[in-house]
TrEMBL record:
Organism: Sinocyclocheilus grahami
Name of protein: non-specific serine/threonine protein kinase
Keywords, in A-Z order: ATP-binding, Kinase, Nucleotide-binding, Serine/threonine-protein kinase, Transferase
PANTHER family per record: PROTEIN KINASE DOMAIN-CONTAINING PROTEIN (PTHR24342:SF19), SERINE/THREONINE-PROTEIN KINASE 17 (PTHR24342)
GO terms, biological process: intracellular signal transduction; positive regulation of apoptotic process
Residues annotated for ATP binding in this entry: 42
GO molecular function, one term: ATP binding
Family from the record: Belongs to the protein kinase superfamily.
GO cellular component terms listed in the entry, alphabetical order: cytoplasm; nucleus
Bilayer-crossing regions: none
EC class of the enzyme, as a word: transferase
PROSITE patterns: PROTEIN_KINASE_ATP, PROTEIN_KINASE_DOM, PROTEIN_KINASE_ST
Gene3D superfamilies: Phosphorylase Kinase, domain 1, Transferase(Phosphotransferase) domain 1
């Protein structure tokens, strides 16, 4: 069961600068007063009622918190504390400053498969641990694979964002329509083997398991790497490699010197990778702008309607209620807007 504290977060942590913001809240740097250690605080706005259009359902936050509190692994973002007030939940999590793995790779002029495997092994270690705990992430994509410190000699991978994660119960059947499946294979070639002319065609290829390793994109990719990918691109889950099996595949754990030599001679297609990463970042920015535009239109629509209409009352239920908000939240709101 998820454990929430009712303490005032500002009694234990000094609230710092904004690191990022989204539709449901913002992330701020926080300093633990007792130890001076820096953490990240995720301030998540909760829905006020069934008719509320803004904020997160408390049940979904509880689910994420329960999962994170049960996962303690070097390659998974750590959750330290959770605070709850009437208006929001604050998650105190590990401060991860190294940025996204894909951005780190894109800055390099060249990268061998051997170097890429060191990152892949860490991702697989984290996934294996999750699966041992009967947890599936359901949204493993470049944006959710971070580095603890990109300047470290051997940066640690950190898997983040467990908002779509699910803990399985024996015998349960679970279906998820979320996730971003087209990223498989792009780390090595800069192009998905499922790639179509449009997103819709790419999705159709994924559903039909229709893919190919185009020579002009995968010419620098070793046969062992292709075999590794093919054993993951299997529709029948019972026939697909598990994270445990991935870690002993010859591409990850070579059986002899010949396999090591072949792996060392292969490299990442950096030209395509840089192009892919630039497209990915542009698409993320485009989606964010579109979401902001939709949010602004919703606000304008609410303002344009008469106060007697139910739609307006629904919108008003999501506005800040400074008259009843705890003093600590008021102080943080005022300091962040000054």
């Amino acid at each position: 069961m998820a454990v929430f504290k009712l303490d005032n977060v500002e009694d234990l942590y000094e609230i710092g600068s904004v690191l990022g913001s989204g539709h449901f809240g913002q992330v701020r740097e926080v300093r633990e007063r007792a130890t001076d250690v820096l953490w990240a605080g995720k301030f998540l706005k909760l829905k006020k009622g069934a008719g509320s259009r803004l904020g997160l359902e408390r049940k979904s936050v509880e689910k994420e918190v329960e999962i994170l509190q049960s996962l303690q692994h070097q390659n998974i973002m750590a959750l330290k504390d959770v605070f709850e007030s009437r208006a929001e939940v604050v998650l105190i999590v590990e401060l991860i400053k190294g940025g996204e793995l894909f951005d780190f790779i894109a800055e390099k002029e060249n990268l061998t498969e051997t170097e890429a495997i060191e990152f892949m092994k860490q991702i697989l270690e984290g996934v294996r641990y999750m699966h041992q705990k009967t947890v599936a992430h359901f949204d493993l994509k470049p944006e959710n694979i971070m580095l603890s410190d990109k300047h470290a000699p051997n940066p640690d991978i950190k898997i983040i964002d467990f908002g779509m994660a699910h803990r399985f119960i024996q015998g349960e059947e679970y279906k998820s329509l979320g996730g971003t499946p087209q990223y498989i294979g792009e780390c090595l070639s800069g192009l998905s083997p499922f790639q179509g002319e449009t997103d819709e065609e790419t999705l159709r290829n994924i559903v039909a398991m229709k893919y190919e390793f185009e020579p002009h994109c995968f010419s620098q990719t070793s046969n062992m790497a292709k075999d590794f990918i093919q054993k993951l691109l299997v529709k029948d889950q019972s026939e697909r490699m598990t994270a445990e099996e991935c870690l002993i595949h010859p591409w990850i754990k070579p059986l002899n010197r010949t396999q090591i030599a072949k792996r060392n001679r292969s490299s990442i297609n950096m030209k395509n990778f840089k192009k892919f990463n630039a497209r990915r970042k542009w698409k993320m920015s485009f989606n964010m702008v579109s979401a902001c535009n939709r949010f602004c239109r919703l606000q304008l629509l609410c303002k344009a309607r008469g106060p007697e209409q139910q739609e307006l009352r629904d919108c008003e239920s999501d506005q800040e209620d400074t008259g009843t908000k705890p003093a600590s939240l008021l102080r943080r709101r005022l300091s962040s807007s000054s």
